[in-house]
Amino acid sequence: MPRLRPDPVLLPLVGALCVTPLGFAFVTAARNRLVSGRPVALLEAAEGPAALLGLAGLALLALAALRRGPWLAIIAAALLMAALGWIAGDYATTLSASQPTARVSLGAGFWLMLGLAALCLVEAARQTGRAGTSLATALVAAILALLLLSGTLDQLSILREYANKRDVLGMALLRHVEIVGLAVLPTLLIGIPLGIACQRRPGLGRLVLPALGVVQTIPSIALFGLMLAPLAALAAWQPELARAGISGVGMAPAVLALLLYSLLPIASNTAAGLASVPEPVRDAARGLGMTPSQIFWQVDLHLAFPALLAGLRITIVQATGLAAVAALIGAGGLGAIMFDGLFTGALDLALLGAIPVIGLAVLADLLLRLASPRAIA
Amino acid sequence: MIRLEQVRRAYAGREAVAGVDLTVERGAFCALIGESGSGKSTLLRMINRLVEPDSGRVLLDGEDVRSLAPEQLRRHIGYVIQSVGLFPHWTVARNIAAVPALLGWERPRIEARITELMALLRLDPRLAKASPASLSGGQAQRVGVARALAADPDLLLMDEPFGALDPVTRTALQTELARIQRETGKTIVFVTHDMDEALRLATQVVVLDQGRVVQDATPSGLLAHPADDRVRDLLGREDRGLRRLALRPVQSVMRKPGPASAPAIAAATDCRAALSRMAELGVSVLDVQDEHGTRLGSLHLADLIAG
Ligand SMILES: Nc1ncnc2c1ncn2[C@@H]1O[C@H](COP(=O)(O)OP(=O)(O)OP(=O)(O)O)[C@@H](O)[C@H]1O
Ligand SMILES: [Mg+2]
Asked: Distance, CA B51 to ligand 2 centroid (Å)?
């Protein structure tokens, strides 16, 4: 008999995976997209090969958890994730064949199980190192692509919303990126010099940085609101600006508010990065005969760069999230889809708006993290 | 040749350097020594204009340093500090090449110079591509010295260059520096807390106290005639005799080789080490031999002590 060496992380996760279906609805089924649905348990929804795949995945995962087989755990968790999507998609397909207006939404049970399976995957990947992480990433991408491209998920409510809103969603995504970009670029142009000035003149820093800190504490909705009046006044005073699209609602106040929010992380990280340059390094640079501008460009800026990049990361992630709220003042973007769904009670539509916001933030974070490791020249 | 004339510098009303006159000849090895806060660093940094005197003049080869652009001046003066201050984002090689790059040397000339300096400071050539963070304290300080020597300056300023090192590494680097100074004939001004280091390396010892020069003498002059109690304290009252012995090689007091053979001692040894050896072996005569074992002379306790 093989020796049992239960994995202290995976085993509890597998246990949770086994009990989740008993307590939470796997999907909900509604007569149409606007009414709330009836909970459907996993055991009721699961049928045929998809159910078998799920069972196999869970069994293999349990085996991997009992015998410390992280590679097996990666494959088993991936299979389980695939099966979860397949079961939900199959159920939706079957139901909508008989009732075309019926909507099947993913329930708490689905999300919980998906999350638990993902945690198993992450833990197993961590145990196997770089190769395991690559395998896990590739498997998840392949499964997602397979499920989406094969049309298995097409009848799920969220994908039907997507089918209806495909064009709008694309436009909203572009608009969202545009808002963030328009806010972040000027922030860099203002924030970096401001950070440098704050570091060189501590008096200025003690004044400016706390002031920007106060801006950060203003709730986003309130700040967007605060932008309305002055911009409306500005547009009324200078009709030229109004014709150029500047007014109390829309992009202009959104961009302006995001800019104000973004200044603190950029300016304070720039200042902190510069302050972190060791004094002996500066002394040596001066002593060797570097000019002040050479010290700034060749030493200060290089050593402050990781902190600056961290500031940029915080800024972009923060602005991506806040830009969603800006839809409330008519700026458009993914937030518009989110709020559309929320206000009409079509929660899958809200989800359709929210997922790309999260995706954008995660993507920006990832890309900037990859850019951060400081190279030695 | 360096000349400081009546230089003063005050910080917040307190004089860090209070009217110093000092001359350091070309090729001299000058040690600035004194207690913490006595103004050693401030004085040193006036020479390359990292500190500007409130009054007085600093002359290099007769030229007032204020007549030169500070950056140009500094590129022709080596500078080493205790905390090393290597550029953490550059490799060892690029750190060493800092000043030549500022001076706009050609690439091949810089490469050749890096190789040459790494050999001079006995740094493993494989370290050229290493990051400063991966170096030991001793290696980092060697790189710091190599960087200061890169553009072959005639003058080297060092602020407690070996202060942060363990005694063994410290002694090794002191020996290295003495060798480099002998081989290159550079003028070196260095700040130290350590009287043994000053006596061992320097040709000129300048004792500072509260921003003033208390004594400016050769090591043996200092030991023979300390100017006052402060200098005597720095020299260590009990150790003074031994320190004087340390300055003298055994060959200067040995007699003709005697008939009987005694325990051997190398000719390069100093008198303090010889005395220690006698005490250790319980003898009063040692046989001085060169590296081939040829007997050069015999060393008698009475001669050691008589000086
Ligand atoms: N940049 C500065 N600002 C204010 N005070 C200074 C500055 N530089 C030096 N001082 C003061 O001048 C005096 C002499 O300082 P200095 O650094 O020359 O001493 P030191 O002999 O090198 O001491 P240590 O052995 O501790 O390095 C000290 O009282 C110090 O506090
Ligand atoms: Mg000092």
From this structure: 13
